[in-house]
Amino acid sequence: AFADTSLSLADHLLQQAGEALDGHRLFVAQHLIDLIDEAGYLSTPLLDVANRLGAPLVEIEQVLGVIQTFDPTGVGARDLAECLALQAKEVDRYDPCMARLIDNLDLVARGDLARLKRICDVDDEDLADMIRELRNYDPKPGCKFGGEAVQAVAPHLFVAQRKAGWAVEIN
């Protein structure tokens, strides 16, 4: 762990924010990035962030929109559906059928294909292709990056071999 020099998700996002934003918008982005978890999700309501920063909600939403364009695709989403939608938009696959499929992830999880076909207005082959494509998206885009740095543990005891045997010392 000490040799691990990989960039954390927050550092990666902050680097991109520094290139894309400036001034107060960069400050808002830094705050939002601090709230993004290791999986890449933002679970804090935007209204709470706006109140805490004393900024208009529309500005918070705009800055989050910029963060959601950063690499990895899907980061900054507030739920799984938004994460998958961001990834579908990235590959220009977010059409009305895919949008309805993503809006009904509970039916995908239950395997209710007949109902999904009706909702999405597609045939068996198209639905299978859409679900296959959906499974290729990353539900936790932030996990590609290292988490928090591992902290060194200080030992309580030191054990050392001496000429006469072993010595145990309290740290």
Q: Would you kindly provide a written description of the structure presented here, covering whatever features stand out?
A:
The structure is a single chain. This protein is mostly helical and 171 residues long. 53% of the residues lie in helices and 7% in strands. It is built from nine helices and two strands. Strands 1-2 form a two-stranded antiparallel ribbon. The longest helix has 13 residues. The protein is flat and about 85 Å long. The chain starts with 8 loop residues before the first helix and ends with a strand.
Instruction: Count the DSSP helices.
Output: 9
Helix percentage? 40-55%
**Secondary-structure-derived class:** mainly alpha
- Bin the strand percentage: 5-15%
Task: Please tally the β strands and state the result.
Answer: 2
Largest sheet: 2 strands, antiparallel
Shape, principal axes of CA atoms: flat
Indicate the low-confidence ranges by residue numbers.
none
How many angstroms does the end-to-end distance come to?
23 Å
The largest beta-sheet arranges its strands as 1-2
Mean pLDDT: 88
Spell the H/E element sequence: HHHHHHHHHEE
Report Rg.
23 Å
